[in-house]
Amino acid sequence: MPVVKADLEACQGYANCVVGASDYFDLDDDGVVEILRTEVPEADRARVTEAARSCPVSALKVEEA
Amino acid sequence: MSAGTVVIVGSSIAGVRTAQSLRLEGFEGEIMLVGEETELPYDKPPLSKSVLAGTTDEDSIRLLTQEQADTDGIRLLLGYRAVGLDITENMLELEGHEPLHYDQLVVATGAAPRPSPWGQPPGIHVLRTLEDARELRRDLLRGGSLAVIGAGFIGAEAAATARSLGLDVTVIDPVPVPMSRIFNPEIGHWFGDLHRENGVNTMFGVGVESVEGEGGNFTVHLTNGKSVPAATVLVGIGVTPNDSWLSASGLLVDNGVVLNEYCQAVDAANVYAVGDVARWRHQKHGEDVRIEHWTNAVEQAACVAHNITHPDQPRAYTPIEYVWSDQHDWKIQVVGRVGGNVDHVVIGHPQIHGRFVALYTTDGTTLRGAAIVNWPKALLACRIGMAQGTTVQGLRDKLEPQLQPQPTGAS
């Protein structure tokens, strides 16, 4: 199953991912992304990939596990 | 699933994301991505920040490599400028290349900086492309002072970057309070303070009469009789959509390609537009809207890809506006609509808390837009709040308890 990976150093807290998929992403108090669920079932793949791609600093990837 | 050939004109963020989103939506036909620049597609926001500062290398801002394009079955046709469109025959005309047939066309030609009204000899710059950024950086590294004409996002970001490189910087803008086209004056003043605290000379409320001299030794003459010496000049006075190549196409073009709520051209159902060049019917605002921001390009690309692949279930495009700007140590984020003469509530203060949010409302209750500085949780609350219809009071109740005075003063 594909998994979500985050580059916490790159994250700048733009929150596009949370707006795109709030069931997978959140921001902590410092504005760094929190991954709420790592595994992405096929039914969610397009939506979560779009949310990851909406990151302005490419801090998120959906990859094959 | 739909097939045929989709031709995308424009290889910046809106065009690239349309191509990628088409594949994500399962599009099985041919995708051609045509770009005027010979460069592999790259991302523009870093150009006034990390690329100009030299802290990011060019490879890391590529939006698409040849390998990724091959993997996704995206044919790249770079270095060709679109010069015309025949919407009867479905043909795209290119300079120096035979015309391309399309079944669906996506116009993503973006916008171009307004040229300098004071001439553009070497040393007077605009900043839009990677090559623009390289040339400006080359001049900044020669040292000397920088004069920035225009205190909008690009000018303000480039000024902050030049300060970080140790240059003397003057920002000139005819508007008395910077950013007051976007925000209310109280907050605009804070932006002015931010620049001055970081060593930028500001000359607001005064225009530029002329620029004399040559690269390395310019004199910027102001309308108040004063002058500013500068080794390098950057002109950041806005952009205009790249739509003139469509003027004879029969498509309705009016400060951008005019589209319906599904981002289809009003005169041709198989022509779409995305990004800075697109003016579409925003159903929630009840008016035609054109937005020059990164997030809009990404969201609009996804919507158009959906509408091309799901013609029976098209989605109306009704985004909540979002833009960010990094200036000195401020991360500025704007959600929704903040312009115009509307009421506002400010929570926090840059000197006391190092963060603040301004909530804008027309009726005193409903959130219309927000400007957020250095406050991630407030950003999230405002973006989600806008989508869910949160009230201004609801956001105050949530955000005011989060404020803590910052003993160090300014952030």
TrEMBL record, chain A:
Keywords: 3Fe-4S, Electron transport, Iron, Iron-sulfur, Metal-binding, Transport
Keyword Transport attached: yes
Cofactor: [3Fe-4S] cluster
Matches recorded under InterPro entries: Fe-S_cluster_ET
Source superkingdom: Bacteria
Chain segments annotated as transmembrane: none
Keyword Transport recorded: yes
Any one GO MF annotation of this record: 3 iron, 4 sulfur cluster binding
PANTHER family: FERREDOXIN
Protein name: Ferredoxin
Organism of derivation: Kocuria soli
Automatic annotation (TrEMBL), chain B:
Gene Ontology molecular function: any one: oxidoreductase activity, acting on NAD(P)H
Any one Pfam family match given in the protein's UniProt record, by short name: Reductase_C
Cofactor(s) the protein needs: FAD
Keyword annotations: FAD, Flavoprotein, Oxidoreductase
Keyword Amino-acid biosynthesis: no
Residue ranges annotated for the Reductase C-terminal domain, each copy included: 322-393
Keyword Oxidoreductase: yes
InterPro entries cross-referenced by the UniProt entry: FAD-oxidoreductase/Apoptosis, FAD/NAD-bd_sf, FAD/NAD-binding_dom, FAD/NAD-linked_Rdtase_dimer_sf, Reductase_C
GO CC field: cytoplasm
Domain FAD/NAD(P)-binding: 5-301
Protein name: NAD(P)/FAD-dependent oxidoreductase
